[in-house]
Amino acid sequence: MPATKFLFWNIGRKPLARLVSELAEIHGVDVIMLAECETDPGAMLQALNRTPETGFHFPASLSQGTVVFTRFSGEFLQPAFESERISIRRLALPARAPVLLAMAHLPSKLYWTGESQAFECVELARRVETEEQTAGHRRTILVGDFNMNPFETGVVSAVGLNSVMSRRVASRETRTVQGREYRFFYNPMWSHFGDARNDTAGSYYYDSGEHVNYYWNMFDQVLLRPELAEHFDPTGLSIVRAVGAHSLVRPDGRPDPANGSDHLPILFEVEF
Amino acid sequence: MTAQTDFWGEIVPAQERTPLAILREQAALLGTKTKNLVEATVDTSVTPDGQFVHRFTLVVPALSSYKYELFRIEHGVTIYPITVASEVRLARSGGGPPNLLATASLGSQLQTEQEFVDWLRRKLSSTETKRIIANLLAQATS
After folding, report:
1. How much is the ipTM here?
2. Distance CA A142, CA B37 (A)
């Protein structure tokens, strides 16, 4: 089954077109999704297509929350639902099974309580279900800056995104709570917590000075429905620390906003 | 019972390139020349009287997918002749700057593939077309 390579990056309103372009080129990215992108789409296209071999397109969208550039024509990525913070698109490539690409940039903890964030996840889950019913399949990729960790209530709860750290558990497809059935997502980001690989222990660092402080957070996530998780190789997912020789992190492993964004990019491949 | 007789004979697709295929080839080439800042699409519809209508449209994705129909051709099931149903031309009024004027239903008849290809080459490489694309490019990158 052919694989498609995705990049998600909250670029923090920084002018990072050149870095995005190099990142896409080095890793052969097919779909670029950028949150907090204030770079004009025309300028981004010029940077992405600086060599004739590339050929990124800017598919039509009404959503400002996440901007998307694809290596394939925009006609293959049609909007299904769009709001300020959510964009759900139908990705239908020739001779490939159609998938839904749902992107979200959920409200920050600076302005929303954990409870409100959790309720927003309920709404997001409901919207994804609606679009799945309309599309007639559940091959959904949900990606974005959720401003929540994979273990938080909204991301884990059945009525929320119902995402789990294990493909084996997700392969059950649903779980039942109080007689109601809820569809799983698989969340591969769990495997990227901690410093086993290097000093970068998440995708975002924040020292809050509160009693409860995780320091490292995994706000940038990709979730897959079991139909896609089945063929997903978790080792193909990475938190990007450098673009060629250009480091995106400081010597202590934290994201370096002076040389990139306060969030690190995530790269992943999905077969469909 | 007598065997059925096949009156159809052998049916094979026509070997010539269709106008739609030619238009699509050219549409695909524009994006590579403009870093996909200005793309071209070809939309086909059929009129109630059985005419195929192909619209050649410029699209600027970075400008909220702004669309600009460059020209439209029509043909029947026999493909040729092709009629240039409408096109947009630049005209100068007095000594002032060029204005965009739509001239509908020009009615030019192109009798063969060669005539169509020659017309299309002139149309796509014309000063008017280049000026339109240059203007769109300028707006897409400003």
Report:
1. 0.78
2. 28
